[in-house]
Prior knowledge:
The complex is a heterodimer of chains A (122) and B (477). Chain A is built from six helices and five strands. Chain A is of the alpha/beta class and 122 residues long. Chain A has a single domain (2-121), classed as 3-Layer(aba) Sandwich (Rossmann fold), CATH 3.40.50. Chain A starts with a strand and ends with a helix. The mean pLDDT of chain A is 86. Chain B is an alpha+beta fold and 477 residues long. Chain B has a domain at 2-157. Chain B contains twelve helices and seven strands. A five-stranded mixed sheet of chain B has the order 2-4-5-7-6, with helices on one face. In chain B, α6 packs antiparallel against α7 (126-149), α8 crosses α10 and α9 packs across α11 (365-387). The longest helix of chain B has 111 residues, at 159-269. Chain B starts with a helix and ends with a strand. Chain A binds chain B through residues 9, 11, 14-15, 18-19, 37, 58-59, 61-64, 67, 88-89, 109-111, 113, and chain B through 237, 240-241, 244-245, 247-253, 255-256, 286, 289-290, 293, 296-297, 336-337, 340-341, 345-350.
Amino acid sequence: MKILVVDDERDIQTLFEQRFRKEIKDKTLVFAFAFSGEEALAYLNLHEHEAVLILSDINMPGMSGLELLRQIKQTYHKPPPVVMMITAYGDAENFNTAKELGADDFLTKPVDFKVLKEKFKL
Amino acid sequence: MIDYKEKLASVFGYSSYSDEERQRRSILIILVGLTSFAGLIYSVIYVFLGVSQAMIAIQIYIGFSLINLALYYFYKNYNFFRNVQLLAILLFPTLTHILIGGFEQSSVVVLSAMMSPLGALMFHTPKRAKVFFMLFVLMVFLSVIIDLFIPIARIDIPKDVRIVFYFLNIVIITSISFFLLLKFVSDNEEFKMELKSKNLELSEEKQRVEETLAELKTTQNQLIQHEKLASLGQLTAGIAHEIKNPLNFINNFSELSLELIDEVFDELKKPDNKDATENITALLGDVKLNLQKVYKHGSRADSIVKSMLMHSRGSTGEKVLTALNTMVSENMTLSFHSMRANKNPYNVSLEISLDESIGMVPLIAEDFSRVIINLCNNAFDAMREKLAHSEGYIPKLRVTTSTSGSKVIIQIADNGPGIPEHIKDKIMQPFFTTKKGTEGTGLGLSITHDIIEVHGGELKVDSIEGEGAEFTIILPV
């Protein structure tokens, strides 16, 4: 399964690569990283339908995670990739907006990787 | 009397002058009238005494004065009027002296020329009065010369008449001198009293002003504190986000390291082989990397909390060497996240370009961080405004640091709606705000400006309406 992680924090790559080192080793999971909404869209354009799951931060300079979500859900109709939003705010407003825009799941920082792994197995 | 003077003022066209000036001019005109009148009485006395030759000088003086008054009436040239009149008062007694035939015959009438320098003291400047006084002395000297060396016709005036005129001349001239001096002294006294009461009033006024100033200062401090708290409130959400990000890494990397350490223990339990050592080395390498990340993000959280505390706490007012680039970028990020975390967040492209040659700069860190936050907050607010009205607009904030000679330059530029020309010189004023309702206190830019001033710096604004605004901070290092 290919997962695109979108976050403006560069260390997120190291974190995911270590957290999922076993899965990466036996190739059950393949990760790609984008450090902005724009970069994520560019990646998706190049590798259409490759990423099955997109994990995106909401608060990023430039295009925000919510805007990215809206564009993904508008542009990539079939098969629509699963988009999970990650945010530092657990507030209702962000949550509702994300849901309205078609987010499949909502996680808050600090990310609990046990929960995340559970979700991946689904 | 007042009506009479007012009438004089309107006839001679000096009604618009100050009370004092009007008074002076009236007195001079009255003096001209009185001296002419007195001259007339003198001449009547001379005629009565049968020495009508003495009248000539007086008649000349009266005629001269009337012509001068008429000239003043027609041409309104006061300066000419007073100079000519004072000259007439100076020359007339000498003329009488000559016509009657010396000191004794004229009963020292030349002494009355003293009225000319005295008049100059009243109606002219002290400098001019000195000139008239010297002329007076010259006239007296001339009279002496004439009396001693030039054979003039001496009118035979009876001794008792001469003595009466001695009496009159002495009394009149000394009286005028005395009353002038008296008026001067009493005016001075009055002036002193007035000054005293004015001083008293002033010191009361000063005290009142000082009290008001103290009150204003207290209010200002409260307002600044209020503004600080308001901006802190706005920042809280942004700060939460900023702390959760490093916390995310700290939690996860340390938990990961625990797992890795367990794996190291597992490897150690295995019988000694080459693979185990390799694996342990690799695992410990990861642990080291993770701990570095933990440390890095811990420091980051620490500096965020520090900058938050800086905002809430009162300023120490002390300049401390501060890493300018870090402060600028941290506070810009903080402002960005607070915008994202508050009402109506929107997308902005952030462009930051830092001149790495800028090192530590002496700054009052608590205060200066507010400068960056205020300017960024304003930019975000402005761009939100434009976003609501224009299609296809991509908000962009550009923050730049650079150096120019011994100065550091920080620029914060947005591509928002810009600042309308008619408010450009008002934006730095306290309480001026374009933000509706309770959104702005109108103190942000004013405080920003003050903080920069305290640092000996300068805040410049460049804006093209519709295209954006650029704030430039120039700081001496």
